[in-house]
């Protein structure tokens, strides 16, 4: 896999790495964040059969490092942030509080085959604003290929998309390629972890800054939103039950006249 413009010096493996996976979906094309998380950790710890509704953290030892990966809800690539459900936005924001004291890196997961247009770039920028200002200095773009695909082919695809070039520039041209179809090739994961360690070194060993008080505020917002949603659900259920009782209680036979042994309905 190609390293992008990352300086390689003497390599000292970190003992702990904290990773947050972010990204969106486009029509039926999912970013594959959960699959990427499973690939990194070497175990199927994230459920890939459903959409990720809540941010969740999982931890494993990988190549001698304690690696924490946080999966997050994806947004629709072509949808502005104001149309992303509020609870999803809060869950995305809360992801950085699930790997204290803060993530070393955000992996922006983009599936190969996603054609970026202006809407997608705008949506990405708006959703990354959910995090603090230095998110780009802690981001590596992770291109996810489900079908077998060479690094050269992926490079040629990227070069044909100007907006992708701009996104990469914002992320310091840091990128990595995953061929998810080749899960036996753990060297892909090892190289990614090395790139993350180089990024940490270049950032002066600083993780992305996290406001603890914001975490408490987000948790309260989540509780309030969940409680309101639960109350609305209960109200709907009660209304349905009441309506059912009214309908069942109001069933009466029409006024009828019995003529020659037959029922004749009169309206």
Automatic annotation (TrEMBL):
Annotated localization: Cytoplasm, Cytosol; Endoplasmic reticulum; Golgi apparatus; Mitochondrion
AIG1-type G domain sequence ranges: 18-216
GO cellular component: cytosol; endoplasmic reticulum; Golgi apparatus; mitochondrion
Family: Belongs to the TRAFAC class TrmE-Era-EngA-EngB-Septin-like GTPase superfamily. AIG1/Toc34/Toc159-like paraseptin GTPase family. IAN subfamily.
SUPFAM superfamilies registered for this protein in UniProt: P-loop containing nucleoside triphosphate hydrolases
Protein name: GTPase IMAP family member 8
UniProt-listed PANTHER family: GTPASE IMAP FAMILY MEMBER 4-LIKE-RELATED, GTPASE, IMAP FAMILY MEMBER-RELATED
Record-level Gene Ontology MF annotations: GTP binding
Biological role: Exerts an anti-apoptotic effect in the immune system and is involved in responses to infections.
Annotated InterPro entries: G_AIG1, GIMA/IAN/Toc, P-loop_NTPase
Keywords: Cytoplasm, Endoplasmic reticulum, Golgi apparatus, GTP-binding, Mitochondrion, Nucleotide-binding, Repeat
